[in-house]
UniProtKB/TrEMBL annotation:
Domain of life: Bacteria
Pfam families tied to this protein: FAD-oxidase_C, FAD_binding_4
Cofactor(s) needed by this chain: FAD
SUPFAM superfamilies: FAD-binding/transporter-associated domain-like (SSF56176), FAD-linked oxidases, C-terminal domain (SSF55103)
Name listed for the protein in its UniProt record: Glycolate oxidase subunit GlcD
Source organism (scientific name): Novosphingobium fuchskuhlense
Length: 497
């Protein structure tokens, strides 16, 4: 394993028993787990290649308990790693040996639903899908829908700014969260945003969404709910190869069509998904697009016709339009099951998460195939094609010496490729530890120091989720220093605050 984590603090390890005793006083009963054998289920998140048992696990049930835990840990200099459902694919919730793992699984209540304002107020442990299930009886739903939506929680979605198959038209988590209650590392409880219009001043809510647990612990989320569209139809389009499918994606968007969702799978992913869920995917194609449109029936009919025309012009060999809701859901069932399906054909895999300009999709796919040959590892591709968010699944066997290292190097080259063509390191999975050491590929040293200053403004002692996101963790005092030359500050003409 090439990824290194911070060296555990010996003083913290030495006072482990005292930490457990103090936290049991805050979260009594079974709220603290510290027996070594009981910590195994918490030693990893969705990036299972990396494992590390935590110092202990604390499972609070109220915001007051979260506040008290953080306040005590802040006073004692104890690190804290927040955790939702543990579905992170970037190692964002990987524990530390000298850190308390703060699990929010007991925060699972829907607190309020306001259909007139079209908002729902939920606790962070509520699963993504459960929000839709809570409001669908009145014809509403929550738009962001990650493939793990049956398990991932809204708190984790906020931390990673998760997307899903419908984020092309309806946006990521940041576009659908109106407010949060967040507990700072010193225990202070703060509310950002709400059901009102955006306030003036700094967009602190925008800073918190996607902050990967580095700035505070979210204990309540206000989300936007939407009325179900009148009609939704999906079309399966098969192509001889992924490059032609990528060209079709680019042309659809270029012609001003914004589907509700547009997903792509290549041949290995198609075969794995079809064997798993048996929904009737064509097996004689090199790439498959699933395109969904929604809205008034007449609009959907027109857009389906336009998409079929564009697909034909780009060499489509098969086109199938859903005829009813059950068939539409079947089309998506295979795509949403792609990750577990690939797990049936390989002992292990790494799921990448780069994002590229749509027009570069054919070039990137071609280069990924070359990299696959160079590294001798297979890759199955599943994309949020409409917004250029790639999810290459690198297949390897951790029991074969050196294969994890090769998979890591292969994945790093894919992410470097994404940046080189004008894209970014992540679209929705976050940086975590997986992409931490690649941050300099995208950001300059000045950029990273400025981001670190934001971290310091929220968490000056660097106790929340350390070891993630930043390849070099500067002390806040270092970031605040200014060079004094001959007793004079730089740019003396500028006002100082």
């Amino acid at each position: 394993m090439s990824i290194a984590m911070p060296v555990p603090d010996s003083e913290t390890l030495a006072k482990r028993a005292r930490i457990a005793q103090a936290l049991r006083a805050i979260v009594p009963g079974e709220g603290v787990i510290d027996a070594p054998e009981a910590l195994t289920p918490w030693e990893s998140d969705g990036l299972t290649a990396y494992r590390q048992p935590p110092l202990m696990v604390v499972l609070p049930e109220t915001t007051a308990q979260v506040s008290a835990v953080l306040k005590w840990c802040h006073a004692e200099g104890v690190k804290v790693v927040p955790r939702g459902a543990g579905t992170s694919l970037s190692g964002g919730a990987l524990p530390l040996a000298d850190a308390v793992l703060l699990g929010l699984g007991k925060f699972k209540r829907v607190l309020e639903i306001d259909y007139e304002d079209r908002v729902a107020v939920v606790q962070p442990g509520v699963t993504n899908l459960a929000i839709t299930q809570a409001v669908e009886g009145r014809g509403f739903y929550y738009a962001p829908d990650p493939s793990s939506q049956i398990a991932c929680t809204i708190g984790g979605n906020v931390a990673e700014n998760s997307g899903g198959v419908h984020c092309l038209k309806y946006g990521l988590t940041t576009n659908n969260v109106l407010g949060v209650e967040i507990v700072m590392m010193d225990g202070e409880i703060v509310r950002l945003g709400g059901r009102h219009l955006d306030p003036c001043g700094l967009d602190l809510l925008g800073v918190v969404v996607g902050s990967e647990g580095l700035l505070g612990v979210v204990t309540e989320v206000t989300v936007r709910i939407l009325p179900r569209p009148e009609t939704a139809r999906a079309v399966l389009v098969g192509f001889p190869d992924a490059e032609q499918a990528g060209a079709c994606v680019a042309q659809v968007i270029a012609e001003g069509i914004i589907p509700a969702g547009m997903e792509m799978m290549d041949r290995p992913a198609i075969h794995a998904a079809e064997a798993f869920v048996e929904v009737g995917y064509p097996l004689d194609v090199g790439a498959l697009l699933i395109v969904e449109v929604d809205g008034p029936a007449a609009e959907c009919d027109f857009l389906i016709g336009e998409i079929a025309r564009i697909a034909d012009a780009n060499g489509a060999v098969t086109t199938r339009v859903s005829q009813n809701e059950a068939e539409r859901m079947a089309f998506w069932a295979g795509r949403k099951a792609a990750f577990p399906a690939v797990g049936r054909i390989s002992p292990d895999y790494l799921c990448m998460d780069g994002t590229i300009p749509r027009r570069r999709l054919p070039d990137v796919l071609r280069r990924m195939e070359e990299l696959s040959q160079e590294y001798g590892l297979r890759v199955a591709n599943v994309f949020h094609a409409g917004d250029g968010n790639l999810h290459p699944l690198i297949l390897y066997d951790a029991n074969v010496p050196g294969e994890l290292d090769k998979a890591e190097a292969f994945g790093a080259d894919i992410l470097r490729l994404c940046v080189a063509v004008g894209g970014v390191l992540t679209g929705e999975h976050g940086v975590g530890i997986e992409k931490r050491d690649l941050m300099p590929e995208m950001f300059s040293d000045a950029d990273l120091k400025q981001q670190s200053r934001v971290k310091c403004a929220f968490d000056p002692e660097l106790l929340l989720n350390p070891g993630k996101v930043f390849p070099v963790l500067h002390r806040c005092a270092e970031l605040g220093r200014m060079h004094v030359h001959h007793g004079a500050l730089p740019h003396p003409d500028l006002p100082r605050f």
